Amino acid sequence: MSRYIIGDIHGCYKAFLSLLKLIKFNFEKDTLWITGDFVGRGPNSLDVLRFIYKFRKNIFVILGNHEISLLLAYINKKKFKIDPQFMQIIHAPDSSTLIRWLRNQPILKIDEKNKLIMVHAGILPNWNLNDLLKNAKDIENNLKKKQYKIFLNKTCKKNNISNKIWHDNLTEEFRLQLSINIFTRIRYCFSKSIIDMHHKISPKKAPNFIKPWFNFYNTVLNEYNIVFGHWSSLGNYPTPKNIYKLDTGCCWGGELTALKWANKKFFSVKCQ
User: Fold this and answer.
1) pLDDT tens, 57-103?
2) Considering its fold, how many domains does the chain have in total?
3) What pTM was estimated for this model as a whole?
4) Which long-range contacts (CB under 8 A, 24 or more apart) does 209-215 make?
5) Domain span at residue 32?
6) Residue 238 to residues 79, 130, 194, Cα–Cα distance (Å)
7) How many secondary structure helices (H) and strands (E) does the chain include?
8) Which of 101, 116, 137, 152 has its CA 20 to 30 A from that of 144?
9) CATH code for position 77
């Protein structure tokens, strides 16, 4: 039995199947973790979503910013111009089943035995483990509620406009909004408590007043291995030895990458 972790698939269904073939994934014995953003941008988001749902007993996902955007699009389909890939899902005959399953998926996954955390984008440097667990659980619980539409509309619209500061006196709404941004969108920070929501480029080209979130000291980073996606422009930029980047730009013509956890071996396939 092996565990594999795959980065952002972004609807690249053919590359996804090719990667599973390359690693000789055994659907009876192996497990697969996916770092989020398995829908959006690529040509076959519905196929990817249906495949994951079909094999959900041994494929485990977390939500990325594109899954959050899909949920937001689903509840506002009459009000906004929506990505064609999302419309394909929204108008599918099984859309209600897929969306219900999607909003019951976690924002964070932790394996205590292996001291392994999977998150889509990253974590705030001044969060401890309790902060991490509480903020993730609060998002997940709100997405599961009957009133999830109200929660999404309050916390996810226009939430990527400016720099954000985390402090102890945040309102509940802003705490949840900022938590979603951190889990699904973070790349750079000004300090351990101030995130930058503008820059997406490689750290090699970034201004020196910001640093990648994983380059700040953090008790969680000191105790756990972390796998994440989201940041394809990282390229070959080095991360700490216990931090594993898995978004290798599949939807931009790069590669789709899997990590075999037991021996830390990487596998990749080219994407068209």
Assistant:
1) 999 999 999 999 999 999 988 666 677 889 899 999 999 999 999 99
2) 1
3) 0.94
4) 212/187, 212/188, 212/237, 212/239, 213/122, 213/123, 213/124, 213/125, 213/186, 213/187, 213/188, 213/189, 214/122, 214/239, 214/240, 214/243, 215/240
5) 3-151+217-270
6) 43, 28, 22
7) 9, 13
8) 116
9) 3.60.21.10
Q: State the residue for tokens 């090719």.
A: 18
- For residue 107, is it within any domain? yes
CB of 26 closer than 8 Å to CB of 110: no
* Distances from the Cα of 242 to the Cα of 111, 127, 129, 245, 259, angstroms: 14, 18, 16, 10, 13
Residue 121's identity, in one-letter code, is A
Which phi-psi region, left, alpha or beta, contains residue 130 (left: φ > 0; alpha: ψ -120 to 50)? alpha
Report yes or no: 69 and 180 within 8 Å, Cβ to Cβ: no
User: Does residue 180 sit within a domain?
Assistant: no
In a domain, 10, yes or no: yes
